[in-house]
Amino acid sequence: MKKLLKTIAMLLVVAMLFSFAACDNTTNNENPAASSAPNQSTKDYSAIAGEYLLDASNLGMPMKWFIKIAADGKFVIATDRAYANVKGEGDIGDKDGTYMLVYSDNTAENPKTATFTIENKNLVFSTKVPIGAASVSPNEEEGNFPTAKIIAHEDIQGVYLGTYEKVSAMAGSVLYSYELTLGNGMEYTFSSSFAMMGTTYTRTETGTFAIDGTKISFTAYYVDGDVVEAPAAVDGTIADKTITAAFKLSMMASEAQEVEAKFGTYADLAGTYTGLYQKAMGPMKLSYICMLELDAFGGYKYTTISIADPSMLDAPIDPANVDYTEEGTYTYADGKFTFTSAAEGATAVEGTLANYVLNVKFPISKMVPNAVDLALYAEEVSGAFIGSASVENDKTVYTAVLNLVGNTFVLAVGAEDAEKPAYTVTGTFEIQKAMLTSVVLTAATLVGPDGKAIAEIPAELATISCPVAESGINAELLFNLDDTAVLGFQLAKG
Hints:
Blueprint: H1 2-24, E1 50-55, E2 64-69, E3 74-78, E4 86-95, E5 98-103, E6 113-119, E7 122-125, E8 129-131, E9 134-136, E10 147-150, E11 158-168, E12 172-183, E13 187-196, E14 199-212, E15 215-223, E16 226-227, E17 233-239, E18 242-247, E19 257-263, E20 271-281, E21 284-294, E22 299-307, E23 322-333, E24 336-341, E25 349-354, E26 357-363, E27 371-377, E28 383-390, E29 397-405, E30 408-415, E31 423-433, E32 437-447, H2 459-462, E33 463-469, E34 472-478, E35 486-493
C-alpha cells in the first residue's frame, strides 16, 4: 500500500512541477531556472501553518529538525526552534491533497523538493527530505517514512501518572500503575501495569488526542502493537494539570475504568541515578553504591550500600547493608537541582545535570556525615545492556553484554552458544557529546576465552565510542580476537 501511495505521489509531483512551471512561465520567461518554483501569491496555507518536529530516530538517524510553515506557504527547516541554524527554506505547492516543499535553491537542472501528505495533522514524506548537505529518506521495506509531527498544545504536553486499586473477591487487591503521555503530533500513549503472583502484566495503547477547552478525547489506533479495528473516541476532562478519562487497565479487563492522572512536573527527570564511590582506607578500599531515586512530583530518596565488589550493582538491596539513607524534596530549573532533606534543620544541597550525569554532594555513611562529591549516572547509561548480532551468511549469533557501574565498565562478547565469551574487557568510561551523546569506553584490561590476560589490546577495543539512543546504546565491536572485523550491536537495557 505504501509503495502504491509513493507511486501516486510521484505522479502528482510531476504534475505539480508542470503546473508550477506553466504558472511561473507567465512571469519568469527570463529565468528558466525559476520556473520550477510555485507561484504562492494566491495560496493560503493557514490550514497547515505551524511548527513541526522531524525526528529521524526510527530511520537510523538519532537527529531532530524543526520545520516552520507560514500561512503564505513559506517554509524553513532548522536544527533549533530559534531557526538560527537554517538547513533549508523555500515555498510550498500542492495539488489534489499532495504537498511539496520546493527549496529556494531548486533548479530545473538540480531539482530540490520533498513531497508529503497530511495524516492526523502531521507531514508524512514519501520522498527524501533534503536537510542542508544531507537528507532523510524513507525506509520502504520497514514501512518507515519521514514524519514531521505538529507541535501543538505544549502547555499540556508531558507525562501524567496515577495508580488505581481494585478489590475483588477472586483476585483480592490489585494495584494498577499507569502513565499517560501527551506528545507532539497530537499523539498519546497510555500504559498500565500490575503484578500478580510474581508476574508483571502490561497493556499499552497509542493513538491521537483532541482538545476542546476542558474536554479531551482519545482515539486508540493500536493496543500492544495490534491495530484497533474500529477506533472510537473516548471523552475525558483536563483541568488543573489533571486528566480524568476511562481506559482499560489490562488485557483481561472487560470494560474501561475511569481513572485520574496527575501531571508529572519532573517526569523527564524521574528515575534512578547510580554512582560508585571508592575511598582507600590504608590497605583497604571502601566501595559504595550510591542511588538517588527521583519521582515525577519533586520527591527523592537517596541510599548508599557498602559493597566488596562493584559488580554487585544489580544485586537486590539488602536493608541490612544500607549505610545511609535520606528522603526529601527537590526542584529543578535550568540544569540545576536543589535538594532539601526532610530531616529537621537540613540545609539545601545543589546539584547539576548534564549529559546523563548528575553531580551532587551527599553523605556516604552515618558514621561519616560529611558530604562528598558524587557523579551519579542516569538509567540510560547505567546498569546492564545486552544485544545480539550476526555476520551476513553466517548462522552464528554473537552476544554482547555491557555492564556500566559508576564510571567503570565490563564488556563481554562471544558466540551465543559458547560456554565462555571470546573476550572480556574492563576499564573506565566517560560521557562525551559532539553531534551525538556517546559513552566512550577506555580499556584497561583484556581477557581471552581461556581467562588469561592479553597484554596487547587491539585498537578496536582500546577506545570504543558508543552513541546513546532512545532504544539503548549502539556499539561496533570485535566478535573474534583473531579478526579486525566488527559487528554493529544495539544494546538494550537488560
